Amino acid sequence: MTVADAIILAGTIHTLDPHMPSATALAIRDGRIAAVGRFADVEQHRGPNTVIRDFGDATIVPGLNDSHTHVVFGLDLARGLQLTDLGPLEEVHRIVADAATAAHLGGWVIGWGLDPNLFTDIGFSGRSFDDATGPVPMFLRMRDGHSAIVNSAALAAASITGPVDFPDESLIDVDDDGTPTGYLVEFSAMDLVTKVLPQEGFDIRAERLAGLLNGMAAVGITSTHVMDYAEGSGKLAAHLESTGDLPLRLRFSPMVNAGASMEELEEAAALQGTGGRRWRVEGVKFFIDGTIDNGSAWLEKPDIYGENNESVWTDPDDFQKALGFFVERGIPTATHAIGDQGVRYVLEALEAAGDSRGLAAHRIEHIETIPDDLVARFAELGVAASMQPVHGTHHTRADRTDNWSVRLGAERAAHGWRCRDLREAGVTVALGSDWPITPYDPRAMMADSILRRPVERPDVEPVQPEQALTALMALEGYTSHAAAAAGLGAETGAISVGKLADLTVFDQDPLLVTPDELAKTAVVTTFVGGLPTH
Question: How far apart are CA 503 and CA 30, in angstroms?
Fold first, then answer.
């Protein structure tokens, strides 16, 4: 008989194991679940040194996993002024002007979370900030993370004087006379400026990352799928582990950028399996398109401005070859695909991989608008959907006056974030935040996916309420479906014998409270590998 290191008791344990859906006790040995059931069932595993933790009427669920974050890359994305949900544009000008006045010699104004809807009347322009900033360079990242606004001083600092040819479909926006407007689209364009930004020191970044991970643990997250392996990620994770265990598990998937060479593909493959105690590199992350808000997504038909009609891969066939490189080697893939044509192309590329597709889990990220036939294709091909319905609830409006909806038109906007349709078709639907694009608190994320509006805004009309998830579906999106999307169902995602003892303990039952109550339900503690982390 296995002697448990710990026995955990609670009013309710939602195991998400169909063979034993609920319990009130569990036993842990060597970081894994040794027994589940009633106290009488697990007491036989009690030894003289077994720790008993009784959480009274609390509810335990499998540890929550955020399926899409950028915890290291996001340190760069979330630098400076937080401009999320701020407006009108005149107010942002005022905030930026104050920051420029306070900037020290050689300093920059840096911000993030800028709302594209602020530029509806004037068009995207960074030069419109020149009066507010004067000679101080400015870099403001848009909320989608795929574009930025920079002023004339920043263009000069980066030696940007006109159009630039990139290996992908990144863009330096210019006027009719070829003068840059200060609007940069996609990463290759933004990198020209970010390379001349003042850089943070390693210790500061390590401190910020530690604070971020502790904050995530405090709201119930025990693991996250990090959709990049940004420069310095491994060094930062190893540094934090040298002083103690990470408060959650990190699964890094290196980005494979458009136009990647064979050498770059091989480098990403060689990283697989490397890592530390609670972090590892597993899988890769592709982009097939950009975002609808900035006109760089890939739609079957252009938007009303004639944009959103191309892949970020200059030759999409090169994407299919690169994808096949990893699929054939049994390496999991995740592909950012927002537009309907982008999603279709990725599904077709995975189908073309044939039987090799079954060697690992493959998924598509975001999936902001798709027609009916693509819902069925996900189910037919066994491809998981990794979605952030919070982007729809926070960035679009039910009256369709937002930039995203206007660009798409009524029909395609009505096909946005089809979480419920995909679930009812039998598709694995993992949920996440895409931090720092939106906040990471899973309680609010789950509540939004049930309400189809911001949980903190009861005055706002729901966006596509027919796509609302049930409370159980939302919880599964952060647990069992999150695990399945990464091919980790044998290890985590449910509370059953042999699986990792990653647990989230709620003060109230997330399946019984209202969505508004769920967003405020206290997280009592989290466990990673049977050890409390919060």
Answer: 15
DSSP 284: E
Q: What is the pLDDT of residues 111-123, one digit of tens each?
A: 998 988 888 777 8
**Which two three-digit tokens encode residue 103?**
């900037």
The owner of tokens 């006056």 is: 401
* Residue among 76, 143, 146, 67 nearest 433 (CA): 67
Q: Where are the alpha helices (DSSP H) in 31-72?
A: 39-42
pTM here is 0.92
What does DSSP say about strands 51-54 and 6-14: parallel, antiparallel, or unpaired? Answer: parallel
- What phi and psi values does residue 523 have, to the nearest 5 degrees? -90, 115
The token duo for 331 is 């390496």
Task: Report how far apart, in Å, the C-alpha atoms of 141 and of each of 163, 206, 363 are.
Answer: 20, 22, 27
Give the model's confidence band at 106: pLDDT under 50 very low, under 70 low, under 90 confident, else very high. Answer: confident
172-202 per-residue burial string, b: 16 or more CB within 10 A, e: under 16: bbbeeeeebbbbbbbbbbbebbbeebeeeee
Residue for token pair 């890769």: 284
**Inter-residue contact 246 to 278 (CB < 8 Å):** yes
Closest by Cα among 303, 292, 297, 306 to 404: 292
Distance (Å, whole) CA 430 – CA 428: 6
